[in-house]
Amino acid sequence: MNQRMQLLKSAMQQDKVEALIISRGSDIKYLTGFTGEYGVAVLLLTADKDYFITDGRFTNQAEQETEGLEVSAFARGSSYFARTEELVKQCGIKECGIYGEDISFADYQALTKECTGTHFVQAAPYVENLRRIKTPEEIATIRKACRISERSFYALLDVIKPGITEIDIANELEYQFHSRGGSGFCFETIVASGPNNGANCHATPSMRKIQQGDLVTIDFGTRYQDYCSDITRTVAVGEIKNQELLNIYRIVRDSKREAEKVLAPGLAMSQLHKVINQYVEERGYKIPHGPGHSFGLDIHEAPFISAANDYQLQPGVIHTIEPGIYVPGVGGVRIEDDYLITESGFERLTNITDELIIL
User: Fold this and answer.
1) Is 222 helix (H, G, I), strand (E, B) or coil?
2) Is 63 in the same domain as 199?
3) What was the pLDDT predicted at 75?
4) Residue 6, H or E segment
5) Which domain holds residue 265?
6) Are 221 and 211 spatial neighbours (Cβ–Cβ below 8 Å)?
7) pLDDT in tens, 147-161
8) Which residues in the chain show pLDDT less than 50?
9) Parallel, antiparallel, or unpaired: how do β-strands 337-341 and 318-321 relate?
10) How far apart are CA 48 and CA 32, in angstroms?
């Protein structure tokens, strides 16, 4: 049994948890090392035996890549959760933890259809808590993902000019990722320009052609060995004559820098949220989205920067800070960097200048 699984099983034992079902693909990869696609397996962990439930396409791969798990394939006409239900009944489990946000209503029905003797409860965030703190190996992999994304961005700057479309920019960036060893997007790239699409914080790249005097916001990241990176920069195409846009850029940049001044172990997410948002709101604007999140195997992981989140940062957490301001009819700006929390403060993992790049 690997160390991650040992830590999880120890936490379950300490809390007297009889059994636990895990179905999120990234959690299964994190715990077992299974490299198959997400959504093709369920883990059932019990005090006596642990099961890897999959289908016939992946049984051999699961047996090769995992250890300490009994690989069990469901029969034709059945399903992952129906087979899990059979094993829950077979093991005589009285209470079983699940993560309700990870399964559909149909899956829940298949799991509980005939398990009248089992009480299913929402489980504590055991895997989420493990994944918060990155190992040295994970940190090294994320560093590499960040380097690939940075170098791809620098190459992209050569093609951003009047006449190219937002979609062209997104496609070129994907090519640059692949050419440098990344495995494509780890989320759909955002390319947003001009007074309309530029004001959409989660804009979809369009056929709009870049014009002289535009601000162009690009939110991007590639995967490397399954781990993500996440960067946003807003660049200028020629001289920006709209003074409000330039003012917005300065406010966003400086709110990120204010956050960097307090970023350290022990800082509560709620306090970081206050520092970022207060700086922006005192200058007459609002951030319409969360100003940061952790990431790893998934692009969005806990902890999230939120006014309601009292989690205190610990060394080994990797986190984004990403303030943004968006004004309909004017345009928008977002700047995002990635940070590793260290014993004494932080290390910024992304090194693109946060001064306005003018092309």
Assistant:
1) strand
2) no
3) 87
4) helix 3-14
5) 133-358
6) no
7) 999 999 999 999 999
8) none
9) antiparallel
10) 17
Query: What pLDDT does 82 receive?
Result: 93
* Number of neighbouring beta carbons within 10 Å of residue 121: 11
Choosing from 78, 103, 131, the residue where a domain stops is 131
Question: What domain count does the chain have?
Answer: 2
Q: Are residues 16 and 26 in the same domain?
A: yes
Check which CATH number belongs to the domain holding 55 and give it: 3.40.350.10
Closest CA to 318 of 337, 291, 335: 337
| pTM for the structure as a whole | 0.94
How confident is the model at residue 71, as a pLDDT? Answer: 96
Q: How many other CB atoms are found less than 10 A from the CB of residue 90?
A: 9
- My answer on whether 265 and 301 are in the same domain is yes
Residue at token pair 């047996």: 63
Whole-angstrom Cα distance, residue 96 to residue 338? Answer: 37
Q: Quick check: 292 and 275 in contact, CB under 8 A?
A: no
Measure the CA–CA gap between 329 and 245, rounded to whole angstroms: 11
SS3 category, 353: coil
pLDDT digits (tens, 9 = 90+) for 43-80: 999 999 999 999 999 999 999 999 999 999 998 888 99
The CA-CA-CA angle for residues 125, 130, 135, to 5°, reads 165
* Residue 236 backbone dihedrals phi, psi, to 5 degrees: -105, 140
